[in-house]
Amino acid sequence: MTEPQVAVLDTTYVLPLFGIDVELGPGFKDALRSLWNHGIRGHKLVLPTVCLVEVGYKLNKEFRVRGDRRILDRYPTILPTITRSGVVHLHDSHLDQAASSAAMEIRAAGHPDLLDCWIAGSAIALGGSLVTEDDALEDAVRSLPAYTKVTIHNWRSFQGTAVKTR
């Protein structure tokens, strides 16, 4: 039996759970729902906990615009779905020395969002692939000779690899 491949998800793939609309093409929402309910065969799905911090900031931004307290209530309401998930595993990249080291290298290479750097750092530290829609993050990772072989997928290419592993 082969070991599952680690796939580190960026914040994009958790936002819809918190009511933040993300559209990545036809069937995205159904595929994402399936991912959160059943996982993806052949993959160990990982969500860095800094993604949850990023969700909090995005909800706060929406709250500042609309002033509706229910926006903030989404976070504690949905959080147990994520923390108790048997499908998606949490990783504390900000507490992992290898992930943090990689994150700081990516930040120093020019990527402006430290949370994104920690997300990529998780993929590097865990020896997995990074699943992201952030082209600038991919460029920053690829600019570092030590990380040129890191596998990076967007949603569409990740779905293609998942089909191949079934």
Oligomeric state, counting identical vs distinct chains = single chain
CATH class: Alpha Beta
Spell the H/E element sequence. Answer: EHEHHEHHEHEH
Helix content: 40-55%
Radius of gyration: 16 Å
What is the number of E strands? 5
What's the number of structural domains? 1
Explain this structure.
With 166 residues, the protein is an alpha/beta fold. The chain has one domain: Rossmann fold, CATH 3.40.50. The chain is built from 7 helices and 5 strands.
How would you concisely characterize the structure shown here?
The chain is of the alpha/beta class and 166 residues long. It contains seven helices and five strands.
Task: Please describe the topology of this protein.
Layout: E1 5-9, H1 28-38, E2 43-48, H2 50-66, H3 69-83, E3 88-91, H4 97-108, H5 114-126, E4 129-131, H6 135-142, E5 152-153, H7 155-164
Parallel strand pairs: 1-2, 1-4, 2-3, 4-5
Helix pairs in contact: 2-3, 2-5, 4-5
Short descriptors:
166 residues, alpha/beta, Rossmann fold, 5-stranded parallel β-sheet
